[in-house]
Design a protein that fits this description.
Order of helices and strands of chain A: EEEHEHHE
Shape of chain A: globular
Distance between the termini of chain B: 51 Å
Shape of chain B: globular
CATH class of chain B: Alpha Beta
CATH class of one domain in chain A: Alpha Beta
Number of strands of chain B: 5
Strand order of the largest sheet of chain B: 3-2-1-4-5
Order of helices and strands of chain B: HHEEHEHHEEHHHH
Structural class of chain B: alpha/beta
Distance between the termini of chain A: 21 Å
Largest sheet of chain B: 5 strands, mixed
Oligomer: heterodimer
Radius of gyration of chain A: 15 Å
Strand content of chain B: 5-15%
CATH architecture of chain B: 2-Layer Sandwich
CATH superfamily of chain B: Ribonuclease H-like superfamily/Ribonuclease H
Largest sheet of chain A: 5 strands, mixed
CATH architecture of one domain in chain A: 3-Layer(aba) Sandwich
Number of domains of chain B: 1
Helix content of chain A: 25-40%
CATH topology of one domain in chain A: Trna Endonuclease, Chain: A, domain 1
Helix content of chain B: 40-55%
Number of helices of chain B: 9
Strand order of the largest sheet of chain A: 1-2-3-4-5
Chain lengths: ~120, ~210
Amino acid sequence: MEKNGYTILGRNYRNSYGEIDLIARKSKDLVFLEVKTRTGLQYGYPFEAVGKSKISRIRKSANFYMAKNNLSYLDVHFNVISIVMDNEIIRKLLKGAGYFPDTVLSENLDINGKIEIEYIENAF
Amino acid sequence: MNFNETKRLLNLCRYESNLYLDGYDLVAGVDETGRGSLAGPLVAAAVIIHREKLMIEDINDSKKLSKARRERIFSEIIKSCICWSVAEISPADVDRLSITKANIIAFKKAVSSLKVKPDIVLADFVSGDLGKGYVPVIKGDQLSVSIAAASIIAKVVRDSIMVKLSRCYPEYGLESNKGYGTRQHLMSLEKYGPSIIHRVSFRGVLS
């Protein structure tokens, strides 16, 4: 997904402050990514599920990560990727297994249903 | 100064040395004390130690030093540093803001009160964004001279504040517990209730 020049530093990073789905870096930019997936819009768009407490936890977790790894001098971006897909696709993906973002963009998948992906930079 | 002490101090100067090598001219350290106290202010201190005078014998995290040692090192720091400052956040403000927000504000106040402005500040890690110009160090008061020095200044200053406060509010034993939740302090709180300098939002203060 973010192999357009980004180095992946961590996946499902966890510490006592919270967890972060993906941490990536491209020279001076450090991105903390939250991935949200939904099968339909009945409960709103996926990015709407990133509420105040989640944001707070991600910020604190990111803050600790940067201090621990001496990266506090980088420019920080809190991004959200919002994915809406239907059950068909989920079944196909689960059959294939692996990380969602990679498999979604893989050409080998034959997707009949619709996928709506939104990449929101500096969401918070 | 024996060899082991020299080695220990050299390690404590690591962060500062690296920053000076990176081209910074003035490195400050900032730390606070009184975060967990049930009464009294949160006190933060900032200090800029001259890069040639970083090897202060016996310097350590204020919590690891005896009162006498701490006060002796405090006098030395005060005399030989480029500048130092303290900032206080009142117990009422600690109640109003979260302890972490109060901590961050205290750090910023202390740093901006320095007579000489630093280029970069080593700060003991807090779980919030300090912004540009700060290098957060986890367990900084044990790993950096400047932060350790700041922790000593903060502790000595806050302790003297608590001793003065104990004369106005004698029921709680503040001259010895410094506001922290010792058994004796908790019993006094049960007996007399909190005073105006107690942080009512803290657990154990209101019954």
